[in-house]
Structure formats: C-alpha cells, structure tokens
Specification:
alpha+beta
Length: 69
C-alpha cells in the first residue's frame, strides 16, 4: 500500500526497499513512460546508483556490522 501511495507522488523517481533479513535491496526507478523498473541488488552486484541524487552506495557499507545469524 505504501508503494502505491508513493507512486502517486509526481516528483518521486526512485524507491528503495532494504531487506532486514538478508543482503538484498530492491530499487524501483520510474522510466520516462512512467513505468516502474525493478532492479535487485545482492552481494554480487554491490553498487547502487541513486541517479536522482547523483550518488552511488556500496551495498557492503549499508549492511556493515549486521549479523544475520
């Protein structure tokens, strides 16, 4: 329900879901046709680009110090 609400915000271009149970981030990016494209980031794919902010984040830094056991 939250994502449906957020998609209604015209200025929103990217939406991230950060997993608490495993190293996984889902990034939804709005295309020029106003469709939402999903990209999954797992340890093998460790750099997340936030184009709207002009930055990149390292997946290892986001999960630094987290023990899933």
């Amino acid at each position: 329900d939250k994502f449906r609400y957020y998609r209604s915000i015209p200025q929103l271009n990217q939406y991230l879901l950060v997993s608490q149970g495993e190293i996984l981030i889902e990034s939804y990016s709005k295309t020029s046709e106003n469709h939402w494209l999903l990209q999954e980031y797992i340890p093998a794919r460790g750099i997340i680009s936030l184009d709207s902010l002009g930055i990149s984040l390292n997946l290892a830094d986001i999960y630094e110090g987290i023990d899933f056991n």
